[in-house]
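Justification of computing resources. Each target in the renewal requires a structure prediction run like the one illustrated here; the chain below, 296 residues long, is used simply to show the kind of job we budget for.
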Amino acid sequence: MRCSNSRTISGIVLACIAVLFGGKGVGETRPSQNAVTLRVMTYNIHHAEGLDGKVDLDRIAAVIRAADADVVCLQEVDRDLPRTQHLDFPRLLTEKLGMTAVFEPNCQFDGGDYGNATLTGLAVTSFENLKLPTPQGVEPRGCLRTTVRAGTHTVDILNAHLGLDEKQRQEQASAILKALRDVPTVLAGDMNEPATSPGISALLTRLRDTAEEDAARKNGPAPAEKTNRKIDFIFVSKDVEVLSFRVLETPETAVASDHLPYVAEVSVRTPPDKGANDGIYDNDDERVTDAITEGN
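Resulting structure tokens:
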């Protein structure tokens, strides 16, 4: 496949202190109560061609619908390509699922586009396609960042499809790490390598694997043979709690694509805004000195 590069579009952690009396002291942090739960799905749909050789976007849509996810990260998505009858996958999935589709091609060939798409029912505030380092003559790779609003939270959803060469994947993982922002983040996609490989090891210096965390909480570490086969991942940043992880193994997913879809349930927690309490850590702040005087 000959591909050409496509165009690229272009929290501070806050605290709230309660002033308490009766020997409990001043400066105790009030824990955040504003959490939101998200269900995230990642799925390499193999341009909707199943293991039975049929191109069936309705089958893919049915798998996505059954997962009932808030955010869906898809890889190998076609738009206006002859091999898939010139169908506009992002537009059709929007119509079939009632979700917003953010799509950016990573390569263009045969008069059409091929890349990653992120579907969501949440409000999209911005998006950009991060061009990942790829040698000349090799299929270009990208990481689609879609920023959404979930309740009062801003969340970055990164949707990536890494290359076939280990050195490339290391460089691409490094590029993703450099692009991380100081907001709750989910990175999902087809990383094309197992958990023990260098690219994944690099990502794990800043992010956590939802599958491993879920397995450790339930029964201890996942079996090595299963870990070494898995190349699709959902990672989260430190401010995102992992609630559950599962592989969708059904008669439909067994044939719909050459990958299985993965789903993670996560909780995003951020402290409340500083607002009027900004500066209350400072003992010279009049709110602190007044409280101490009154307490005495």
